[in-house]
């Protein structure tokens, strides 16, 4: 059991499946209390019951549509009222729809901005005063390698993750001197249901099948760094190396990687 996590309350958004579900399990395994939020009440209830049965950790959950700012704001207020101080926040909720900009549906664009960016800002903005009041805590934002290297058909998704990384880096400099850790998690493709919405054709998922990350391993890595000072988690490491080369020579990389960039 991780003594840093034991007894701590950690709010996890997008907790009804994939990485979010495994994050909840690993927080509980280390003796922490995961507080779950997502749209599916049925899935959240099942996860909470499983965690309570296996680890004996009472697991509160909240049904909320994070794309609805007013609803999510009220839910955060309720969480703070019912649980007092929150020790950690993992902004995990995120969606994507891969399409050329000219062919994109505005509702899809708006929803990506609302879930990936606005709800993350909202959650952080409302919880940050509580963390600062106690002089400790950890905010982890699940970003993406797409926030470092944009590719065709992911203009909006990449833009949302650029925003998350920029927000995370600035926030870190603001609050680390006050005792709050801030970490961005920049991931390549992860084997979850994410791609069922992002690319219903299944072509992109099939093209990256061999390099997909295991969501359980991702969650384990994230929880292992909870309440420690860590600027970034980059997975896989070779993709992070590629993003560094890209930042130095973007034109060359775009030419060399054109085939790979157009797999969506």
TrEMBL record:
InterPro entries linked to this entry: NAD(P)-bd_dom_sf, Sc_DH/Rdtase_CS, SDR_fam
Oxidoreductase found in the keyword field: yes
Pfam families: adh_short
GO cellular component: membrane
Protein name: Short-chain dehydrogenase
Keyword annotations of the record: Oxidoreductase
PROSITE patterns listed in its UniProt record: ADH_SHORT
UniProt similarity note: Belongs to the short-chain dehydrogenases/reductases (SDR) family.
Signal peptide positions (record): none
GO molecular function, one term: oxidoreductase activity
Biological source species: Halobacillus dabanensis
């Amino acid at each position: 059991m991780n003594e840093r996590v034991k007894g701590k309350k950690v709010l996890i958004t997008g907790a009804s499946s994939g990485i979010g579900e495994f994050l909840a399990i690993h927080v509980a395994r280390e003796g922490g209390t995961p507080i779950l939020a997502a749209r599916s009440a049925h899935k959240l209830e099942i996860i909470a019951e499983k965690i309570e049965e296996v680890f004996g950790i009472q697991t509160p959950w909240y049904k909320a549509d994070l794309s609805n700012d007013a609803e999510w704001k009220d839910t955060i207020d309720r969480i703070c009222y019912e649980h007092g101080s929150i020790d950690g926040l993992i902004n995990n909720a995120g969606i994507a729809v891969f399409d050329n900009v000219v062919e994109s549906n505005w509702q899809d664009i708006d929803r990506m901005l609302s879930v990936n960016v606005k709800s993350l800002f909202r959650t952080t903005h409302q919880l940050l005063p509580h963390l600062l009041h106690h002089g400790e805590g950890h905010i982890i934002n699940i970003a993406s390698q797409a926030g470092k290297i944009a590719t065709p058909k992911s203009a909006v998704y990449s833009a949302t993750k650029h925003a998350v990384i920029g927000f995370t880096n600035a926030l870190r400099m603001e609050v680390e001197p006050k005792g709050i850790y801030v970490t961005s998690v920049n991931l390549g493709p992860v084997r979850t249901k994410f791609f069922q919405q992002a690319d219903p054709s299944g072509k992109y998922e099939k093209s990256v099948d061999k390099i997909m990350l295991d969501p359980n391993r991702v969650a384990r890595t994230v929880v292992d760094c909870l309440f420690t000072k860590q600027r970034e988690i980059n997975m896989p490491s070779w993709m992070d190396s590629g993003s560094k080369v890209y930042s130095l020579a973007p034109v060359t990389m775009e030419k060399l990687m054109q085939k790979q960039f157009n797999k969506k």
